[in-house]
């Protein structure tokens, strides 16, 4: 009898240790996945920024505004650049996306946009030590984190999660399309795809008035205007090996679980004079621009 009881205790302890080990291994794996996705979207943003060709505009990048067409966030034609500079005569703008390869009308040729993806029926959130994970708060509710509450997009509706889509078109603006393989996080096919809850991109546009006043950019040689984009990207990942925290503001008799998802974030400053070519020539007397 004692032997059986001892074996049961050992089996229970071993099962608990194995469960904790598996949960920790899963958390570490998902953390690596989240970091990879974050680095990928930042790399793609910089690559699109540096390789974008001028299409009639001296602006190299912009914060995009969505025109409100229902179910049209996967169509590049529904976005237009807004060149309101943060803190320079205009307030911060909600980021519907970031655009590059801009034409004279202010329409982008490529874009990373914020969208909401519906969670398919029958697909549950993944589980951790505290049971089913709880969706995280949206970055636009981070009142104590920079200007995220002013520049990040509004939270998605219940039953949806935020994603970053990549949209592009031909050189002349024709054939706008979404490259679904570049969505971050990837399209939901099962519960495990919600290990990464979602992704959000937030940006602010700044106008370099000092360099403009000094004429330190080659408007007459095909160069871009001397402006900046400050971009922050958020990826939410799950934690499976710890109990979720409790809401300290909830009543003691009904403690509310907070989310076991955490936001991983990274960003960059995109300076419009970075990695561009300028035609240089000697001015002759009477030449235009001399």
Structure write-up:
It is a single chain. With 290 residues, this protein is α+β, with helices and mostly antiparallel strands. It is built from three helices and eleven strands. The longest helix has 50 residues. The chain is elongated. The model has no long low-confidence stretch (mean pLDDT 84).
Question: What are the key terms here?
Answer:
three-stranded antiparallel sheet; alpha+beta; 11 strands; 290 residues
Detail the topology: elements first, then pairings.
Blueprint: H1 2-51, E1 61-66, E2 79-82, E3 97-100, E4 110-118, E5 127-128, E6 131-132, H2 148-151, E7 160-168, E8 177-178, E9 196-207, H3 209-214, E10 227-238, E11 261-271
Antiparallel strand pairs: 1-2, 1-3, 3-4, 4-7, 5-6, 7-8, 9-10, 10-11
Uncertain segments of ≥5 residues (pLDDT<50)?
none
Order of helices and strands: HEEEEEEHEEEHEE
Class per helix and strand makeup = alpha+beta
Radius of gyration: 24 Å
The portion of residues assigned to helices is: 10-25%
β-strand number = 11
Tell me about the biggest sheet?
6 strands, antiparallel
Work out the strand percent: 25-35%
How many separate helices? 3
Our measurement of the CA-to-CA distance between the termini, rounded to an integer number of angstroms, reads 101 Å
Q: Biggest sheet, strands in spatial order?
A: 2-1-3-4-7-8
Mean pLDDT: 84
The dominant shape is elongated
């Amino acid at each position: 009898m004692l032997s059986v009881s001892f074996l049961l205790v050992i089996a229970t302890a071993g099962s608990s240790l194995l469960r904790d080990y598996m949960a920790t291994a899963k958390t570490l794996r998902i953390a690596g996945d989240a970091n990879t996705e974050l680095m990928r979207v930042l790399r793609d943003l910089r690559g699109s920024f540096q390789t974008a060709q001028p299409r009639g505009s001296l602006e190299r990048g912009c914060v995009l505004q969505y025109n409100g067409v229902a179910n049209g966030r996967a169509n590049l034609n529904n976005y237009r650049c807004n060149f309101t500079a943060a803190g320079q005569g205009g307030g911060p703008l909600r980021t519907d996306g970031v655009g590059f390869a801009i034409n004279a009308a202010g329409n982008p040729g490529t874009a990373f946009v914020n969208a909401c993806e519906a969670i398919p029926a029958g697909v549950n959130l993944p589980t951790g030590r505290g049971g089913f994970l709880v969706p995280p708060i949206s970055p636009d509710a981070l009142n104590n984190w920079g200007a995220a509450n002013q520049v990040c997009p509004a939270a998605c509706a219940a039953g949806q999660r935020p994603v970053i889509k990549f949209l592009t078109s031909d050189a002349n603006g024709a054939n706008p399309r979404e490259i679904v393989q570049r969505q971050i996080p990837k399209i939901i096919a099962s519960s495990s795809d919600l290990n990464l809850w979602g992704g959000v991109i937030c940006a602010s546009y700044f106008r370099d008035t000092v360099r403009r006043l000094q004429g330190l950019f080659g408007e007459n040689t095909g160069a871009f205007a001397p402006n900046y984009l400050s971009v922050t990207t958020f990826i939410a990942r799950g934690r499976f090996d710890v109990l979720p925290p409790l809401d300290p503001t909830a009543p003691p008799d009904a403690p509310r679980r907070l989310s076991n998802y955490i936001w991983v974030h990274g960003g960059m400053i995109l300076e419009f004079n970075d990695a561009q070519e300028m035609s240089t020539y000697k001015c002759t007397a009477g030449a235009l621009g001399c």
